[in-house]
Design a protein that fits this description.
12 strands, 52% helix, 12 helices, binds alpha-D-mannopyranose, two-stranded antiparallel ribbon, alpha+beta, single chain
């Protein structure tokens, strides 16, 4: 039996010996690449493919496993590690584990049914399967070809765009320098004009103020003289009161031990303590009572300085200081009068203390003098019309304050002119008002400033775009920022390439950021996977991470979001298509990627035939296992 099989196989083998290596072997289930090994050698034997044993050729496919690698039984299920080759004419040949031969199941990988040669269960359907497969792969190739073409177009567009944008950046950078220089000049001009405007306003204010000073100085002088007259009388009064109290303190009879006297003395001591200069000042002026009144008033109408009568400010200062002294002296007088009043009411009238009696009598006399003085002052005030004078002086003071406060409005260049309404002082020889020139200079400055800001952000945005990784050959340059979305029912997902990803509620249109573009995927430590885009640091998830999205692209002419899933809470995955994931067109020499990267990309983008066959094998194996 063995012998017979050997001779048949040998004859068949010999008759094909001269044919190419891929010639199908006459031995069932042999991969054509090993066909030459399945011919009896000169010794009429077969050497196991791994070289581990040599057996008579007749034992090949005798349904008994001889070789450890299973290579002697390619067409039977005798070995559990052999492989059976289906020729699949009309489709792609395939290899299946030889264990599946004649197992009563039509192995989908062997569309020719050859795996069931013994049972005869399976028809050859390779023509149909092959046609369908070809249609499918043709469609896929067509899509890839179109995608690759679109990719090449994009790459070309990107090149032109980079040149254009680099040119735009250079032009805008130049323009920015020019505008910055113009802006600096405009600022200098504006500052100079504002300074002139301020000076003009200041001098106008100065003359307004001077006019008010000139107009109101006489009132101030009259007021000052009147206050001076008042002060003189109050000082004399205080002096007299002090003399009375000093005399009580010095000359009273302590033996009487009069409580009212003791209290007056102690209250006076307290007054002296708290008004350190009052006593000496009072004594100094006490003697004035004897001097000629007019002379005294002239003396007191100080600073005695002639300047007070020509200088409004000096006069005002003198008036202020006279008024404040008058108030202080008036207070002292009230204190001292009250003190003596109490003494008068409370001293023991049975004691003949002459010092006390003199003081009480002195107080009475002083009261008369005071009444006379007040009457005189009232007449004086009436003669001068002091109330009117006081009112006009107060009005003048607020007008002056208003003119001075106007300087605060210098900055806007308007109030100074509006203050007097004519603006003549701001008129330039050339005809255009200074205010107008300032306004024009400011407008120019602000316009240039906004032009500078616009240019400056355009320049930095352009630089930022051009400096970032835009993929091989800048393929993403024409697409950067372009948005693509998918309505997935509850949410619409939007991916703006190289920019951001967003989840939009279809119910209330609220938006959740799914992240900003952070970079491409990684194939290895050095090579990037440009078909994977990562978006990170989106809105924080409640009790979870910041939302993020990874977009994975497969080749297609159009860019689209096919599906979005959320495999982990707040970690989204978008399945997308785009031409940039298509195989690189060989003629597309514009792509600047290194060899290794190009190969890697190619391996990724175009599945080689063997892979396809293997893919098909895996798929079919799964189907077989299901059956
Ligand atoms: C929202 C959406 C969901 C997410 C939850 C997390 O409802 O962003 O996708 O899972 O928040 O709380």
């Amino acid at each position: 039996m063995h012998l017979c099989r050997i001779s048949l196989v040998s004859i068949a083998a010999l008759s094909h010996a001269a044919q190419a290596q891929s010639t199908p072997s006459a031995v069932r289930g042999v991969d054509p690449q090993w066909a030459a090994k399945y011919v009896a050698n000169s010794k009429g034997t077969f050497v196991c493919l791994d070289g581990s044993a040599e057996i008579p050729f007749g034992r090949v496919n005798d349904d008994y496993c001889d070789c450890p690698d299973g290579s002697d039984e390619p067409g039977t299920s005798a070995c559990n590690n052999g492989s059976f080759y289906c020729q699949n004419h009309g489709h792609i040949p395939a290899r299946i584990p030889s264990l599946r031969v004649n197992d009563g199941v039509c192995d989908p990988q062997c569309c020719d049914g050859s795996d069931e040669w013994g049972t005869g269960l399976c028809a050859d359907v390779c023509e149909d399967v092959g046609r369908q497969h070809r249609q499918k792969t043709d469609a896929q190739r067509g899509a890839e070809t179109r995608g690759a073409r679109r990719r090449a177009e994009l790459a070309e567009e990107a090149q032109g765009m980079r040149l254009g944008k680099e040119r735009e950046w250079a032009e805008k950078t130049e323009a920015l320098k020019r505008v910055e220089a113009e802006l600096a000049a405009a600022e200098t001009e504006k500052l100079a004009l504002e300074e002139s405007q301020r000076a003009v306003a200041e001098s106008r204010r100065e003359s307004q103020r001077q006019a008010l000073y000139d107009e109101h100085l006489p009132e101030l002088i009259a007021l000052r003289r009147h206050v001076s007259a008042e002060l003189h009388r109050w000082r004399a009064h205080r002096g007299s009161l002090v003399l009375l109290l000093r005399s009580v303190r010095a000359s009273h009879n302590p033996e009487f031990n009069d409580q009212a006297v003791a209290q007056a003395i102690s209250a006076y001591a307290e007054f002296v303590d708290t008004h350190s200069d009052a006593e000496s000042a009072a004594l100094a002026h006490a003697n004035e009572a004897a001097a000629d009144r007019h002379e005294r008033e002239r003396l007191i109408d100080e600073g005695g300085s002639k300047q007070d009568d020509v200088d409004y400010e000096a006069c005002r200062k003198a008036l202020d200081s006279l008024e404040s002294e008058r108030r202080a002296v008036e207070d002292d007088v009230s204190t001292l009068v009250a003190l003596l009043d109490e003494l008068r009411a409370g001293y023991n009238k049975n004691y003949h203390d002459l010092a006390v009696k003199a003081a009480v009598g002195g107080l009475g006399e002083l009261e008369l003098v005071r009444e006379k003085d007040l009457a005189e002052l009232a007449t004086l005030a009436e003669n001068v019309g002091i109330d009117g004078v006081r009112m006009r002086a107060a009005e003048a003071q607020s007008k002056i304050a208003a003119v001075l406060s106007d300087s605060a409005g210098d900055g806007d260049g308007e109030s100074a002119q509006e203050a007097d309404g004519d603006g003549e002082s701001a008129q330039e020889a050339g005809g255009e008002s200074l205010d107008q020139q300032v306004a024009d200079a400011r407008t120019l400055f602000w316009d240039l400033q906004s032009e500078k800001n616009t240019l400056s952000s355009a320049v930095s945005n352009l630089r930022e775009l051009l400096d970032k990784d835009l993929g091989p050959g800048d393929i993403y340059l024409p697409l950067s920022g372009k948005c693509f979305s998918l309505d997935a029912g509850e949410y619409t997902y939007e991916v703006c390439l190289l920019d951001r990803a967003t989840q939009i509620s279809n119910k209330d249109k609220s938006r959740q950021s799914l992240g900003s573009f952070s970079g491409f995927g990684e194939l290895s430590a050095t090579a990037k996977d440009y078909a994977v885009h990562k978006y990170l640091q989106g809105t924080k998830c409640w009790n979870g991470p910041h939302r993020s999205l990874t977009a994975s692209f497969t080749c297609a002419e159009e860019i689209a979001v096919l599906a979005v899933t959320e495999p982990e809470k707040c970690e989204y995955h978008a399945r997308m298509t785009g031409p940039f994931a298509c195989p690189v067109d060989d003629q597309d020499t514009g792509l600047e990627q290194d060899q290794g990267q190009a190969q890697e990309q190619k391996a990724k983008s175009i599945p080689p035939m063997t892979d396809a066959a293997e893919g098909q094998t895996t798929e079919a194996a799964a189907r077989h296992d299901e059956l």
